[in-house]
Amino acid sequence: MKQYLVERPNGNVVVAILRNKSDNTYSYVNLTKGHICPCRFVSEEEALHDMDRKIKSGEILRYILLN
């Protein structure tokens, strides 16, 4: 399981991108807060592109692969 440190303006969290067994899509799982994001992606790469978009919009500052 790949984990990412996501640096946000209002605090950092550790996030994993995991596959949903129900429909084989991928979602963010906030391991710091124990929350599964309702967003769905067709691949891990699409989820990473979404984080890149969030960097451009200022929603997150950056993300770093932890393992």
Any overview of this molecule?
There is one protein chain. This protein is globular. Helix content is 21%, strand content 39%. The protein has 1 helix and 5 strands. It has a 5-stranded antiparallel β-sheet with strand order 4-3-2-1-5, covered by helices on one side.
Could you tell me the number of beta strands?
5
Shape: globular
Main sheet: which strands, in order across?
4-3-2-1-5
Proportion of residues in extended strands = 35-45%
**Main sheet makeup:** 5 strands, antiparallel
Ends apart, CA distance between termini: 8 Å
Give me the strand/helix succession. EEEEHE
What level of helicity do the residues show? 10-25%
Secondary-structure class: alpha+beta
Question: Which stretches are low in confidence, meaning pLDDT under 50 for 5 or more residues running?
Answer: none
- Quaternary structure annotation: single chain
